[in-house]
Amino acid sequence: MGGEAGVESETGKGSTFWFTAVFAPGIEGAIAPAGLPEVDEAAARLRGHGDSVRLLVVDDDSINREVAVHLLDAVGLRADTAVDGLDALEKVRATPYALVLMDMQMPRLDGVEATRLIREHAAQSTLPVIAMTANAFSEDRARCLAAGMVDFITKPVDPATLYALLLKWLPPPAAPGATPPPQPQRPVGPDPSPNAALIARLAAHPEVDTRFALANIGGRAALYVRLLKQFFNTSADTMTRFRALLAAGDSASARLVVHSLKGSSATLGMSALRHSAAALESALIDGCDATTLETRITEAETRLAKVTSTLRSTLAEPGA
Fold it and tell me: What is the pLDDT of residue 198?
């Protein structure tokens, strides 16, 4: 949430624990925040680049890749995608990208090691690489910086935060005076389309926070519905695959499966599922006992079953 946490402690006197977080202002009656001044201003400035820059989005989760590309496309920035670190290395060495958005945890080659390898080549020694991860721990930030990444953004990606980072690290447009005027914003308020009607029905279910999810993707109802369908079609058997990998002794791959579930569910506003997946991932990292691990697995299975049941019934309703 763009904040920090810390503690101030003195023996015999006590401790003060503190945290900061960044919140966008709420808009009553709107399905998603649109037309916020800081987003509009950043978007207008980014559009000044036109086709002069090209970016690379690296993420093993298809939903997160699509959301990131959509947010870039919304401000006129072209972006290619890579599914893991090895794919990213090939594309970075073949194309002069202006900036790379790099996920940290991926199969084959993770984002940290991929960035180290990118930095070994003189041609990419100054290429801005921004870490994207669902973890916001200080040790993750330290690993990113040590590998040569220049900044850090947590997932789900907040559009305002993303655009601010892009303005910070992208080179200025070649002709600043040619920056186009801001494009008209989509009206804030109920969308009469069938997609909006489906989202309104889905909002009645506690498993999905539709307002939060729409804020992550600029309020695009059609995109959100498409991503929900994609999640439903690809994630129903996630925990079955997880158990199979765990039974085969492949805990590393099992962890990647649940990490991806955590990331996609966070982006789509499935907060309870996200927290269950995060708890399971932590249990794997900490090497907890078998009883605790089974409890975390069962919790994640239960949450996922509730989400898929909700999506199945909502998507099956007339008009969906």
Answer: 87
Give the chain's domains with CATH numbers: 33-173 (3.40.50.2300), 194-315 (1.20.120)
Asked if 89 and 114 count as a contact pair (C-beta separation under 8 A), the reply is yes
| Cα(58)–Cα(107) distance, integer angstroms | 12
Please tell me the pTM assigned to this model. Answer: 0.75
Count the Cβ atoms, other than its own, within 10 Å of residue 188: 15
Alpha helix stretches (DSSP H) within the chain: 37-47, 62-73, 85-94, 111-119, 138-147, 159-169, 194-202, 210-216, 221-235, 238-247, 251-267, 271-286, 290-315
| Residue-wise pLDDT tens digits, 133-158 | 876 566 777 888 888 899 989 888 88
Q: Which token pair is 226? A: 């498409």
Ordered strands of the 151-154 beta sheet = 78-82, 54-58, 99-103, 129-133, 151-154
Tokens standing for residue 217:
């993707």
CA angle 111, 114, 115 (to 5 degrees): 85
From CA 51, how far away is CA 269, in angstroms rounded? 32
Q: Within a 13 Å sphere around the CA of 199, how many CA atoms are in the beta-carbon half?
A: 28
Query: Residue 215's pLDDT is what?
Result: 87
Question: Residue 208's closest CA among 310, 305, 65, 299?
Answer: 310
Residue 130 has pLDDT above 90, yes or no: yes
